[in-house]
Amino acid sequence: MGELEAEKHVQYILSVEKRKDDFESLLMEHLRINGAYWGLTTLDLLRKIEAVDSDEVVSWVMSCQDQDCGGFGGNVGHDAHLHYTLSAVQILLLFDRLDILDIDKVSDYVAGLQNEDGSFSGDIWGEVDTRFSYCAICCLSLLHRLDKINAEKAVDYIVSCKNLDGGFGSIPGGESHSGQIFCCVGALAITGSLHHVDRDLLGWWLCERQCKDGGLNGRPEKLADVCYSWWVLSSLTMIDRVHWIDREKLAAFILNCQDRENGGISDRPDNAVDVFHTYFGVAGLSLLEYPGLKPIDPAYALPVDVVNRIFFGK
């Protein structure tokens, strides 16, 4: 299956930030803080995060904060959103720099987006989605502020999005999708509520996502895509059903999506690489315990040593 081109992936990630005027950078302009989280977490999993100037990164992250509401935008001067706020917190935690954050201001912003039915809006414009439930719960847990929301109602809302196939959708009645399943299972894991999941039924649906080429897809009849190496595999890990898929075929699929000359990982073999798929490919390999990679936490999507430092001071 070949080996992980770790050093080339490091150089690729470092080069992306320097090329601010190319097509990929322009496409990511509105979610640069997500891209920074993907790239920096990849570097940490590859044990190379010291290759970046942490002070410079932290300073830029803080410049993306909306001083009025406390949340973070996807780039400097952009509107605050739960997804960007979570990425900002995750980046600060990678560098152990939560000390510069007004934690109560940020957590008040996140908690203020919970609705009466327990769901969360992504921002002040009111879109509701279980992705935002995950972002809020994960963010508040990392900040040790889960008590600021009605966690019971939040869990009830997520459970209301469960389907007859064992999966979860974006809203009640929404189609089961691997990305939404990660968000719902991750939020339930963080809140200690995994008893609401039918592990065998959901595990069967998730293992059915493995295609003939070894990769995983997001829902039935779709092509495999490297990013689902994370969404599906992390969910299977949290419900203890990873052994239901062919791990070696999945690892081979991810490795076949590498650009072995210039670094980076694409969605499927021979396509253009990007930071998003590079992160999810490396994160998937980490869950598969690929040699040399740091282990990653399947619920918090951060290296295990970072999560241990947050919760156990280790």
Automatic annotation (TrEMBL):
Does the UniProt entry include the keyword DNA damage?
no
Q: Which residues form a coiled coil?
A: none
SUPFAM superfamilies attached here?
Answer: Terpenoid cyclases/Protein prenyltransferases
Gene3D superfamilies associated with the record: 1.50.10.20
Q: Name one GO biological process term.
A: gametophyte development
Q: Catalytic activity annotated for this protein?
A: geranylgeranyl diphosphate + L-cysteinyl-[protein] = S-geranylgeranyl-L-cysteinyl-[protein] + diphosphate
Q: What is this protein called?
A: Geranylgeranyl transferase type-2 subunit beta
Taxonomic source organism: Ananas comosus
UniProt lists the gene as: LOC109723870
